[in-house]
Write a structure and sequence with these properties.
single chain; 258 residues; alpha/beta; Rossmann fold; Helicase, Ruva Protein, domain 3; 2 domains; seven-stranded mixed β-sheet; two-stranded antiparallel ribbon; 11 helices; elongated
Amino acid sequence: MSVRAKKHLGQHFLTDKNICQKIAAQHKGHQDCTKVLEIGPGMGAITEYLLQQENQDLYVMEIDRDSIAYLKQHFPQLEGKIIEADFLKMDLKKIMGDDKFAVVGNFPYNISSQILFKCLDYRDQIPEIMGMFQKEVAMRVAEKPGTKTYGIMSVLLQAFYDIEYCFTVDEHVFNPPPKVKSGVIRCTRNERGSLPCDEKLFIRIVKMSFNQRRKTIRNSIKQLINGKEFDHPFLTLRPERLSVEDFVELTQAVQKIL
């Protein structure tokens, strides 16, 4: 039995066992987290090696019924831990309760950014995110200030996670091969419990700034300031020059005049 990759689900199955093993090895159990949730395991290419790791309580979440049937047949040790659900729509507390859990996987590229943002919503329960993305997305998440790649996703993820770009994966190790290269990253929860500013305002300022990234911050957030008297040294810069800490400082300053 094998599973045919479905285009509408963004499926690209890994076929190189060495790469699968290398990806699984990037999961480090940050903060001694033992529960693991693999998203979109398909035919279990990475699952096989995750199951070999010690002190791991592995769950898998899959939306494709053909893949679920395959997993049940080939991985009996996952009995009761194969969840048929859409990760983006699922209340993760129904599965994990209040326990901490890592999120790993060869993520469908068409929803990979949404997966990361959902993990942010559960950031205090998810100490580690490790997986494969389209290379462009992986690099954007890991990028540091000062480049055109650095953007909204970089700032919001790096506010709460330390990001490591692990390695690049070529197209030929997939069936069907994607049209782009892939990148594996590991995000480990940092020590920042919460931001020392209004988090909703922080997110709004980050998004407004990068949505008009060719403009200075002053012009990008003009509508937010709404004519109020406000001056700050960051206002003359473009958003890619600002670190997470800089955006926090800017948010704190804006808070005072709103």
